[in-house]
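Researcher: Let's run the pair from yesterday's discussion. Sequence first, then tokens, for each.
Model: Starting with the first of the pair.
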Amino acid sequence: MNFAIHLADLFEGYLILLQSSKPVIHIIYSAIGDLLFSIMSSFVKLTCLTTDTRKVRKDAQALGAVNVEETQNLLSIHKIDYGKAALREIGSLESKTNLDAVKTEIKLCYQDVTLYLQKNLPYKLSILKDLQFFHKTNRLKEVSVLAVRRVATKVAEVLHGTNLTDLNKDRYADEIVRQFKLYQTEDINLDEELDSYSFWRMIGGMKDQQNHLKFDDLSKLARTCLTLCHGNAAPERGFSFNSTMLQNREETKEDTIIAIRIVKDAILHYGKVEDFPITRRLLDLCASSRQKYFLHLEVEKQQREFSERQKQKEIENAEAQKQIKEKLSEVQSLENQIEEETLKLAVADNLIEEGTGSLSSLLLTNGALNKSSVMKAQMLISAGVEKSKTTNSNIKNLKLKMKNILKK
């Protein structure tokens, strides 16, 4: 646990930098080098991490190329920096075998972390390496002019056709280099409290003896580059701001959110509300905003009324469908009952037919009539007639009900 805390401390500075709200894209390359050096110097020999001629650390790209799996580049497990608290905890182990095993595991952890960083950190991006020369303390470095030329050429390609410049990329790069070389000779107060964006705004305002801006194009290029996102902090703050806007504003529409964000981002860009430029276009938009708002309300009202009519129509259609289903269900039930009554009517007819047949047979027989047989035949006929009468009445009533239902 103590080693994990020690390792986390090594990442702290770099992670805090990524969360900065100020422009830091021009120091990311150097920060990557610092991070790699901080971790690698804990278990890699210093000769692998510094230049041969000067005892200064290698840059990020050179550190990323160091083979941390090569045994001859590594410190022995007894010279590795484990952090004071972790080292004290390791020292409390009684068994030398356990002690060496723990140290070896920590060395492997250092290797895995470094290999992951070497694979995933963006130190191979040439634009990051070149942008570091827009830092106010790096203007006199040997390769700064070539780096600035590469940046100018790339930006001119990407922003071709914008209001950045009317020159082609080669002439634009030449002009930027001319201004940068002149900028290198200026005696400039490097105020530590002044962030890079404000610094380059100040540079852009410097004038020559003829009252012309000396570094206008260079300043615009630098500030354009400084707007490049250096991490997830800006999007995360954007999500947070959106969340704040939506609190207790469930009815806020997407257009409103976009409008608020545009205003917020514009104010952040210009620094202060009083620095926001009041243009004729802005005044015209403000003057017509009330009329547009009322028109917006009228459109919303019409849409709401249309939606309500559609909803009512859907309810009525659903109710009509429900009634039709109920009618069909009732009609089907009545048809089933009529079918049952029809079967009962057939039974009644059979009784009558059977009684009539028996009585006819008795009458045609010579000799005295059997009263018991006659009574039995009469009972069959009577039962059949009664059942037929009742059944016909039921069928009539059922058909009447069906007729009334179909009329509704």
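Model: Moving on to the second of the pair.
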Amino acid sequence: MKWIHFAHLGGEEMKEKYPVLKGAEPFYFEGNNIGILVSHGFTGTTQSMRPLGEAYAKAGYTVCGPRLKGHGTHYEDMEQTTYEDWIRSVESGYEWLKERCDTIFVTGLSMGGTLTLYMAETYPEIKGIVPINSAIDIPTMASATNLEDLPRYLDAIGSDIKNPDVKELAYEKTPVASIRQIVMLMEKVRDDLHKITIPLR
């Protein structure tokens, strides 16, 4: 199993104000001609999905875990991104896999699961998807963005792992602008769910 990490995946290099946190780098594992794209969630990093990526790699698959733009650095960077940026980050990973693999599957956690559904809606050649706790409709989040006098940042969930010996890399603040972006992403994906025809696990 060969492991390599890299700063960005195809397309334009991410231009962010803050450096990437240690452990939040994108990753890939080179294996056979079956590829698996693994996407992390909202305000999170690749750290949360790396164990899953490693498990797939040990089974022999080629795995790509892109870092979503604005994630894994500082929440001020995230504030400057849009859901289209997050889509492009995942699509860059997909293009990387297409150059190496004949068959591709996609999985993701939370907003990563939402992006997984988006990929299935957009790329019917994908062979199967495994969305994990996909964010599709969160009414309280949508209604909160319509409130007046909201602060620029809200307290985030941060690390929510029960094991006290494990700390997840995640932002301690969530930009309100980014909440509006994920709400728009959920609306877009929800409206196109009927387009998904590939196997869902």
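Researcher: Give me one sentence on the second I can quote.
Model: Residues 3-8 have pLDDT under 50 and may be disordered.
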